[in-house]
Amino acid sequence: MQPATPASTPDEGGAAVVERLPQKVQPPQLYQVVMLNDDYTPMEFVVAVLQEYFGKDRETATQIMLRVHLDGRGVCGIYTHDVANTKVVQVGEAAHQAGHPLQCVYEPAV
What we know:
With 110 residues, the chain is an alpha+beta fold. The protein is 40% helix and 26% strand.
């Protein structure tokens, strides 16, 4: 990203007036965190993970869990790259500590 380049223009007294040129900044790329289904992780654990790491209320977490169970995958949330990566790592560590094979991935949001 380039800093704003000041444009100098002389005024009538011989002094330079500095004008800021507007920057065109693109919004950051967003990524969706997707939870993947497996045949071993208990549904209650999935709901608890969605509540703890994604801030979902119980009803929303249950709906996402059912989507994961029925469709094989479910979107947990949409975040910037660093936040999405952190969420995936947190879920993986929590699942590992609990002895479950639950997995999350992140992919560019469309």
